[in-house]
Specification:
The complex is a heterodimer of chains A (109) and B (114). With 109 residues, chain A is an all-beta fold. Chain A has a single domain, classed as Immunoglobulins (Immunoglobulin-like), CATH 2.60.40. In chain A, strands 2, 4, 5, 9, 10 and 11 form a 6-stranded mixed β-sheet that branches. Chain A has a 5-stranded antiparallel β-sheet with strand order 1-3-8-7-6, with no helix packed on it. The model of chain A has no long low-confidence stretch (mean pLDDT 93). With 114 residues, chain B is mainly β. Chain B has no helices and 11 strands. The chains are: A mainly beta (109), B mainly beta (114). The interface between A and B is medium-sized, with 23 and 25 residues.
Chain lengths: 109, 114
């Protein structure tokens, strides 16, 4: 059972385009985290969102936590080849840490 | 400062064998968590150790076990290996025991069971 569903699963875009990745759940989370994983490496934490409705910006990346704390989105403006990687959302529930199904992003120069 | 170190990086084992993976956390970090990553199931939580005690456990069979030493280094053991255990095993270390604390991941151990 996947507690966190991400969409889309795969995304291939041209450099300079904008994109949004979604992380949805039927469960409420006290907080959600977003990670990026590059091939051959472990995930690296990008941001943690803790308050319903919260919006956090990290340069060209904008993260939003849903009002009901069941979903989150990641928006990238003017994507660059360096943004290529696997994006994962994650949250704690029932003494376990759940990762989303992942979105594999490829930015073509 | 040094990051999380996992050894070995690659491992090939035969069905029925057992395997032990090692994780050295960032200096000063007392929490170590283990994850299994496969193309089909994604990243799944195995267990978390803090100060030598297992604090949280995922939904994996008893063949998967772990331990943590007094220096916070952790080992994960898988007994009676099955083909489906082939995966990237990641460990993450953090300062505190809360699963929501920022975790720093190692590069992982790629286990192949043949």
């Amino acid at each position: 059972t996947q507690l966190l569903e991400q969409s889309p699963q795969f995304l291939s875009i041209q450099e300079g385009e904008n994109l949004t990745v979604y992380c949805n759940s039927s469960s409420v989370f006290s907080s959600l985290q977003w990670y990026r994983q590059e091939p051959g490496e472990g995930p690296v934490l990008l941001v943690t969102v803790v308050t319903g409705g919260e919006v956090k910006k990290l340069k060209r990346l904008t993260f939003q936590f849903g009002d009901a704390r069941k979903d989150s989105s990641l928006h990238i403006t003017a994507a660059q080849p360096g943004d290529t990687g696997l994006y994962l959302c994650a949250g704690e529930g029932g003494n376990q840490f759940y990762f989303g199904t992942g979105t594999s992003l490829t930015v073509i120069p | 400062k040094a990051g999380v170190t996992q050894t070995p990086r690659y491992l090939i084992k035969t069905r029925g064998q057992q395997v032990t993976l090692s994780c050295s956390p960032i200096s000063g970090h007392r929490s170590v968590s283990w994850y299994q990553q496969t193309p089909g199931q994604g990243l799944q939580f195995l267990f978390e150790y803090f100060s030598e005690t297992q604090r949280n456990k995922g939904n994996f069979p008893g063949r998967f076990s772990g331990r943590q030493f007094s220096n916070s280094r952790s080992e994960m053991n898988v007994s009676t290996l099955e083909l489906g255990d082939s995966a990237l095993y990641l460990c993450a270390s953090s300062l505190r025991a809360s699963l929501n604390t920022e975790a720093f991941f190692g590069q992982g151990t790629r286990l192949t069971v043949v």
